[in-house]
Amino acid sequence: MDISVLHNSILFKDFDDTEISELLKALNAAEKKYNKGAMIFSSGEITDKLCFVTAGGVTIESNDMWGNRTILNLVGKGQFFAESYALLPDVPMLVDVCAAEDCSIVFLSMKSLADLNDTIRARLLANLLTITTRKNLHLSSRSFHTAPRQVRGRIMAYLNTVSVQKHSREFDIPFDRQQLADYLNVERSVLSNELSKMQRDGLIRCRKNHFEII
Amino acid sequence: MDISVLHNSILFKDFDDTEISELLKALNAAEKKYNKGAMIFSSGEITDKLCFVTAGGVTIESNDMWGNRTILNLVGKGQFFAESYALLPDVPMLVDVCAAEDCSIVFLSMKSLADLNDTIRARLLANLLTITTRKNLHLSSRSFHTAPRQVRGRIMAYLNTVSVQKHSREFDIPFDRQQLADYLNVERSVLSNELSKMQRDGLIRCRKNHFEII
DNA sequence: CCCAAAATGTTGTAATTACAACATACTTTC
DNA sequence: GAAAGTATGTTGTAATTACAACATTTTGGG
Predict the structure, then answer these.
(1) Is A156 helix (H, G, I), strand (E, B) or coil?
(2) B121 at the A interface (CB within 8 A)?
(3) Residues in Cβ contact with A6 at an 8 Å cutoff, skipping those fewer than 6 apart
(4) What is the least distance, in Å, from the CA of A102 to any CA of chain B?
(5) CA B203, CA B214: separation in Å to the nearest integer?
(6) A167-210 residue pLDDT tens
(7) Which residue of B has its CA nearest to A185?
(8) How far is CA A56 from CA A31, A79, A162, in A?
(9) How many angstroms separate the CA atoms of B137 and A22, rounded?
């Protein structure tokens, strides 16, 4: 198992190597590999596993009964997912989780939290709280980015956020066109078209996933 | 201050009256009243206050520069909001918070968490984790409900979730038409129109906020 | 009970988006 | 470096939605 990524994760912030090893044992840590496109969780499943990406990345998606896909989130190396479902183990998942590329996932049992002593538990809970809170902000951001009714508004809302986060008018985005379209909940071709128009209108410059706001 | 609502809140679950009183003091609890429509937080503000609704209700909204409003969440009596911003105090809010009706809000300082002893702190953190996790699911749900591209799809996704939650094909929803339209990110008139069509098509029956799925 | 105000429903037209089909550009592999 | 595969850009048409304007219903005082 690739321990080093876990050691640098938010979950084990302020824990030393010995403590981490003990915690991994206490939480029944197990690693599993997936090929690109593989489904890790399906809508309706129930789990108590907190999931950590040690390599590659996954997408959190909503796939409706008419075949429309919406990417709700991208989760990359060093990040967690399914924490809501792990911590509320009676709630069935509303989303699918797929391997965006070949990836490795470590599963940690949240049932086992109760067995830890109070001090360790408090430290772990504080870190878990940071994880869920940040995830919360990601979800809020997506609501914010898909709130504008028109495609141009959504693109600008999104690019503006990335620009603010990176403290620069010039930046790379972590999506290709199809993924960005799915994230913003618009048609890929409509997105391409609108990006062209926005360049013609002198609002932005872009080439592949590199953007500049003018 | 209306203590009884706080005593029944998730945050103070498993705390007795004495402990709660001490905690309220330690967290600098302060109550404030707002009239319907009043703005409680504006986009861009920074806060470390965990907010609790003791009476009435508030809406979490995204208001874009073209005047479009999107209701991201309704927060009612006995519920919390702004916990993400309170727990990550360097992050500016991306949303507005408005009084949906006359309401009272209790503000709790999250900076003061660090001053608590470990045992109390662990118990409080566990409860906070439940709050953020549930809030997380609400946000996920909204992504899910607005994922379908078409109005009918969004309505059905939403009604289906409510129906599952209430274990019944017949139920009340907590939105009026304008609020449901804002929540689903569609035009109010388009929503009314589509609901009429769905009744004509024999999919649902509805009258005001009472719905029946057929 | 009546009135005024608010909420909801209906309709038509203009604007936008979805979708398909195809063109072009870029990548990878042999 | 050619071929195949993938990603991105463009265009036109059909379908959907936005918006405004108005009709109808419901609600809450007086």
Answers:
(1) helix
(2) yes
(3) A12, A20, A24, A52, A54, A106
(4) 25
(5) 5
(6) 888 999 999 999 899 899 999 899 999 999 999 888 899 988 89
(7) B147
(8) 13, 10, 22
(9) 30
